Amino acid sequence: MQLLKWVLNLLLVCSMLQVFPLPLAQTICSEADRAALLGFKAKILKDSTGSLSSWVGKDCCGGDWEGVGCNPTGRVNTLALQIPERDSTLYMKGTLSSSLGSLQFLEVLVISGMKFITGPIPESLSNLSRLKQLVLEDNSLQGNIPSGLGRLSFLQTLSLAGNHFNGVVPLSLGNLRNLVMLNLGRNSLTGSIPSSFKNLVHLQSFDLSFNLLSGFVPEFLGQFHNITFIDLSNNQLSGHLPVSLFNLVTLSDLSLSHNQLTGSIPDQVGNLKSLTSLSLSHNKLIGPIPASISRLQKLWSLNLSRNGFSNPLPAISSKGVPSLLSIDLSFNNLSLGTVPNWIMDRQLSDVNLASCKLRGAFPKFRPDSLSSIDLSSNLLTGTISTHFTNMTSLQKLKLSNNQLKFDLSELKVPDGISSIDLHSNQVFGSLSSILNNRTSSFLEVIDVSNNLISGTIPEFTEGLSLKVLNIGSNKIAGQIPSSISNLIELERLDISRNQITGTIPASLGQVVKLQWLDLSINRLTGKIPTSLLGIHSLRHANFRANRLCGEIPQGRPYNIFPASTYAYNLCLCGKPLQPCKGKKQEMVQ
Prior knowledge:
- The protein contains 4 helices and 39 strands.
- It is mainly beta.
- It is a single-pass membrane protein.
- InterPro entries: Leu-rich_rpt, Leu-rich_rpt_typical-subtyp, LRR_dom_sf, LRR_N_plant-typ, LRR_R13L4/SHOC2-like, Plant_LRR-RLKs.
- Residues 97-208 form the Disease resistance R13L4/SHOC-2-like LRR domain.
- This is Leucine-rich repeat-containing N-terminal plant-type domain-containing protein.
């Protein structure tokens, strides 16, 4: 009975605690850690994110200090301040305080996307012996990578990408044997890939892209048996592809593009059974493409462009590379003649076969999946007027530098197409159809330069998305319509080498995003309107060889362009040419 009474009393106490809970002992953050965080805050001179404005009061562990996390004993173990990639308006300006090195219990340090945090990485960060993640991406940090980071033996993630670091990669980073992810990409690092990296056998992701690294692709990469991602692109690496690289059965993404690699692709490439993306473009690789590539069952993206690969192209069966969606063999030494059936008959999204010596009529691809076609710099002939009617997914079409001959006004393209490049063919007809409101509502790029197009420039309606309009080197006459002001997104306009007459419309000054303007070698008359001074983003302009007269707009950049910009006109004057008669030329501020 006494035992039962004791149990009932205990249950009563517990139920009362649920209704009237006793106050818990609150964990207040360590004063030393709070001081270290405030030391970091003091070095940030501008914070448009507003994150650091929450760092007030004595308790940095109460949940109110944005980006700060603590362990149960009140010690700061996380500092994570990150801006989304696409938000260009938010930033922090300042430097990293050495006080961060006093956060003895820190396990995660992420300061990413702040854009304007400059200066070096403080040496004191090498004291953070418990650190597991160090991410300082997309800031403006500079100097050498501290060798002391090699003492952070628990580190699993190290990313210093997207900064301005220079010098060699420290050998000491090879001591970080627990690293799973290493990203030093998008810096200015020099020297070779350290031999000490052979110790990083647990790596799953390895990115040194967009640096100035030289030397060979290390043979020891073949020992990284857990690796899934390797990107060494955009460096100055040379030598052959190490055969050991092609034994990595877990590797899914390999990019060695934009280097100076030589030799051929080993037959062992077919061993990469997990590979989904292979990019070896912009190197000096030669020889035939190995037939073993057909064994890559998961490969969906293959880019071998701008090398020296030669015939024969492997004969791949319909069951080979079954996952392939994107292929780029452009600018090699291939002489294909026609597009191989194993490319033609697939449901591909991107086909890039520029400069592959294709001949004859335009090939008939499967229409239901293609989003991008580049068959430029070949020997294609005939018409393409109705080839794209059913290609409802097509967004980019590049057929420049061929021998295509058709009436532009008869070209039928899908409503959602964004880019058309037909320059340097034998296209004739007028611009009216390609620039009508239905077709061009999504169009951002039109390049039909160096053809036989005639007629006039049509009126531009509102709502157009054009960023590039190049109609140069044709036989287009008439005037520039004042409705050109409707091209509010336009960045590049080239109507050079035509037969355009009339004056330059003042409304052109409303195209304020314009960066490139070429009106040269036409029959334009009148003055260059001063309204063009409203285009502050202009970097290049050419008015030469017209019949223009009067004072050049006296403001930047027009009065500092070279004199050749205005040469061979009727009577232009003012800086950078001779002063106008009867008017003293003003000094440039």
